[in-house]
Amino acid sequence: MMSSRKLLASELGWSAEQRRFVGTARVASLGTASAAARPHVVPICFVLSANTLYSVIDSKPKRLAAENLRRLRNIVENSQVAVLVDRYSEDWERLAYVLLRGRASLAHAGEARRAIRLLRQKYSQYRRMPLTGRPIIKILLTSAYAWGAF
Amino acid sequence: MMSSRKLLASELGWSAEQRRFVGTARVASLGTASAAARPHVVPICFVLSANTLYSVIDSKPKRLAAENLRRLRNIVENSQVAVLVDRYSEDWERLAYVLLRGRASLAHAGEARRAIRLLRQKYSQYRRMPLTGRPIIKILLTSAYAWGAF
Questions:
Q1: Measured CA angle at B105 (ends A28, B68), to 5 deg
Q2: How far is residue B45's CA from residue B60's CA, in Å, rounded to a whole number?
Q3: Is the Cα dihedral B75, B77, B79, B83 positive or negative?
């Protein structure tokens, strides 16, 4: 289990540049696993606040499919998650990624409202989307690993 | 365990367009999990051949870090993997992804040589990189799930 003490940014072991790389990324890949260790990966929009990531289960175009909700079921079964922020380039000298690890849970009322505000600051697309009452995934980051051109 | 029978393309349940989306993608996110269900995600270059994905543990710039090899350890412990191919766009009507599931293992000699040929056809970057003897991850796809604008 994770300690409830908040980690300082520096304790995550990433540089200011790596933190900016994550904070400004528009999309990440959220890796979860069922209790039976079956992995699952979905793209997420997210916002970084101190050492916490927030992501909302929104109603993006098309449909909110059952498959898309597996992340929630996995998080209930197993709070360990991995979040990948990746930069691909045809110039492989410029490849870079940051892999974050953390513990996921659902944010409660007050924190969820704050997360929605932050998500709307970052993504103008969310400003015209009803988000109140939608599940907000909260990820307390426990480690950051960076690779490549920083 | 997976049956050794090969799935026909149509049995994976994806359209020609979704298959092309995956086949032409330059990068994907490989999700693995340890036996203890700890998830891990890394970006991979890969090639799609029939219903098999191949990816090489190469020596891209910088270093081949221990962290980067966790995918191999996880695959030995737990062959279940997920592969995400994602298209992000600021126009959220254009968002799309395909989530593939499969069983991973290491390719053996003859198959590994063929995989290297295919990877070099797809990625010119690999043509000037020594790959012989590098571990080749082989993923037999068992399902495809597509979401978004196809």
A1: 40
A2: 11
A3: negative
Q: Which of B31, B78, B149 sits opposite A40 (nearest CB)?
A: B31
Nearest CA to CA, how far is B75 from chain A (Å)? 11
Q: Which domains does chain B have, with CATH numbers?
A: 9-148 (2.30.110.10)
Q: pLDDT (tens digit, 9 = 90+) per residue, A112-130?
A: 999 999 999 999 999 999 9
A39 and B36: CB-CB below 8 Å?
A: no
Give the tens place of pLDDT for each residue, B30-64: 999 999 999 999 999 999 999 999 999 876 654 55
Minimal Cβ distance to B82: which of A27, A36, A41: A41
Residues of B in contact with A35 (CB under 8 A): 37
pTM for this predicted structure: 0.90
> A61 vs B92: CB contact, 8 Å cut-off?
yes
Provide ipTM, 2 decimals.
Answer: 0.89
Grouping H, G, I as helix, E, B as strand and the rest as coil, residue B55 is strand
